[in-house]
Specification:
The chain is mainly alpha-helical and about 110 residues long. The chain folds into two domains: about 60 residues, Orthogonal Bundle (434 Repressor (Amino-terminal Domain)), CATH 1.10.260; about 35 residues, no CATH class. It is built from seven helices and no strands. The termini are far apart.
């Protein structure tokens, strides 16, 4: 199975992003593979778009490249916010009020730090 270098959103494909991040961090495929506890061949297949890492390897990759799993997967902040809003809309009023209280508490806590 080959993962194509085009995606429907016009964003940089996963394998290209992975390759670019590795080069930016001046790491070898073997070094990243070792950190992910996979073989260099397996990691090479990720970069070449032949396969994708398992979900448990994504946080490791994010840590190696000092980024987030959302960034690795091409999730934009706006997309993440929309997903969060969509989930909040599904809650009942008591749950929404509880979230609002948590946010207000956090914002109050952060303003005291300044």
């Amino acid at each position: 199975m080959t993962v194509h270098n085009k995606n429907l959103t016009g964003q940089e494909p996963f394998n290209i992003r992975l390759h670019r991040l590795r080069e930016e961090h001046r790491l070898t495929q073997s070094e990243v593979a070792s950190a992910c506890e996979v073989t260099a061949t397996v990691y090479g297949n990720w970069e070449q778009g032949r396969s994708l890492p398992s979900i448990d390897r994504l946080p490791v990759l994010a840590q190696v490249f000092h980024t987030t799993t959302d960034y690795l997967l091409g999730v934009k902040a706006e997309d993440a916010a929309e997903v969060l809003l969509s989930r909040i809309r599904q809650l009942d009023e008591n749950e929404k009020n509880a979230i609002e209280q948590v946010i207000a508490s956090m914002l109050g806590h952060n303003s005291r730090k300044k």
